[in-house]
Amino acid sequence: MRSLICHLRYDSRVRFKFTHLLPLGHHKLLSLITELRQRPCPHCQRSETLIRHGYSTGYKAHGHQREVRRFRFFCSNRHNRPGCGRTFSILWSHLIARSSMAASQLLELISQVTQGVPLHRVWHQGDFTFSITTAYRWFQRWQLHQAHLRSHLCQTHPPPRGDLGSAGASTFLHLSQTYPNECCRITAFQNQHQQDFLP
After folding, report:
1. Are 45 and 12 in contact (CB under 8 A)?
2. What does the domain layout of the chain look like in residue ranges?
3. For a disulfide at 75, which of 83, 107, 125, 132, Cβ 3.0-4.6 Å?
4. CA distance 44 to 13
5. How many CB atoms lie within 10 A of CB 6?
6. Where does residue 80 rank: exposed (0-12), middle (13-18), buried (19+ CB within 10 A)?
């Protein structure tokens, strides 16, 4: 297994969803699993009840190979353990949930379209592995979730001033100003807020 967890951003008050991705050795994964088992369950808040409960795979953004996309954990109520019996998942923050699309691909699509380039031209000229129908569907989701994004971005950085011509352009500038030094701003958003970029 080549790509494993780098570090955990875990808040016992909320459902933990995202973490960074970095190539690490298998021994590092085992130590992080041990660390997580000592944390409280995000559902019942009981400690030392979490065990690994498998993983799920999906297709990579490029090619037809499958990759591990998330690990599942179980709050054990077996063998007289005091857990609640519920599960939760840890997802990689560089991926888009429920899609084979990478966050960097979605960022590239949104970046160019908000600059005024027609979406069909962006798709034809770009190195995207998803269909043009998928591109239109995800851009529509971007347009529909402006309030969701701005409400989270305003927690970290004030919104940009002036009229930028469209709500999408304003939101993208806000995203860029909030994470100016990040290579993928969608990844940074998901890791900080523990929320899907486009729910």
Report:
1. yes
2. 3-92, 103-193
3. 83
4. 10
5. 15
6. exposed
Residue 103 exposed, middle or buried by CB count within 10 Å (0-12, 13-18, 19+)? buried
Longest alpha-carbon distance in the chain:
61
CA-based nearest residue to 146, from 119, 180, 117, 169: 169
Per the listing, tokens 């002036």 go with 162
- 5-58 confidence digits (pLDDT tens): 333 444 333 445 566 544 445 566 667 677 777 778 888 888 888 888 887 777
CB neighbours of residue 90 within 10 Å: 19
How far is 122 from 130, CA to CA, in rounded Å? Answer: 12
| Alpha-carbon torsion, ordered 109, 63, 179, 117, to 10 deg | -10
pTM (predicted TM-score): 0.77
Closest CA to 67 of 89, 87, 90, 92: 92
